[in-house]
Amino acid sequence: MSETRGQARQWRLDWRLMLFVGVFLPLLVGLGVWQLERAGQKQRMLEQWQQQALALSWPDLVSRGLETGRPVTLQGRFDQASWLLDNRTRDGVPGYEVLTPFYPLEGPALVVNRGWVAAPRTRAQLPAVPTPSGIVELRGRLAEYPEPPVLAEPEPAQQQWPRRVQSLPRAEAMRVVPALPEAILRLASSDQPGAFRADWAPDLMGPQTHYGYAFQWFALALALAILTVVASYRKTGANNDNDNG
């Protein structure tokens, strides 16, 4: 009897169990680390969103680096050409976001997201997007270019303006306006010159939510490690008891 108990304390691992753990344990830890990184990114975005407009000229901002969420004030002129970013809905209504080149009085041109407009009833029609002429002052925040999804289909070549697009990568916009900076400008509100429905808001999922998700992934990883130890210990004991029987 004492011999059997001594054998039950031996440490042996099942290779199938170790294979399972070897796949899922790094995955769980990796997901936890990714959530921590996302939390840090959201914290920086919220801090930038809460910033007041800096007393820097547009050329100075470009030279220092354009961070997403930074507030910007510009004076300049709109181009009369616009892209219509397709498949954008508001309150369940299909529509477009209007993206128009803007030429500041100083510094490089940039693309301005002027907000959302409802789509006409048929795809053959495009919405009217009147653009103010003359010098205007814009207030907004820097944002990333609307990059294409992985499976995006290329748009057929269009000559007329406005042009309907499924996405607007920087490289595509630079075919029309060379030397664009690495960010676009989202207008601060719908009362800005040339704005449509521009009621942007920061991501509602704050950093604390990502910290919570990270804790859950790390807790699952710890639970998996503990269960692996327990399962290996019990299974080894059961096999030894059967052999002795």
- How would you spell out the order of helices and strands? HHHEEEEEEHEH
Q: How many angstroms separate the termini? A: 11 Å
Basic shape = elongated
Radius of gyration: 28 Å
- Proportion of residues in helical segments: 25-40%
Average pLDDT confidence is: 79
Q: Could you say which structural class the secondary elements and strand pairing correspond to?
A: alpha+beta
Give the uncertain stretches in residue-range form: 235-245
Number of helices: 5
Indicate the proportion of strand residues.
15-25%
| Side-by-side strand order of the widest sheet | 1-3-4-7-5
User: What is the count of β-strands?
Assistant: 7
User: Could you give a short account of the major beta sheet?
Assistant: 5 strands, mixed, barrel
Brief write-up:
With 245 residues, this protein is α+β, with helices and mostly antiparallel strands. It has helices at residues 2-8, 15-49, 58-64, 170-173, 207-244, and strands at 71-78, 83-90, 93-104, 110-118, 136-143, 163-165, 184-187.
Written account of the structure:
The chain has five helices and seven strands, in the order αααββββββαβα. With 245 residues, it is an alpha+beta fold. A hairpin with a 2-residue loop joins strand 2 (83-90) and strand 3. Helix 1 (2-8) runs antiparallel to helix 5 and helix 2 (15-49) runs antiparallel to helix 5 (207-244). The N and C termini lie close together (11 Å).
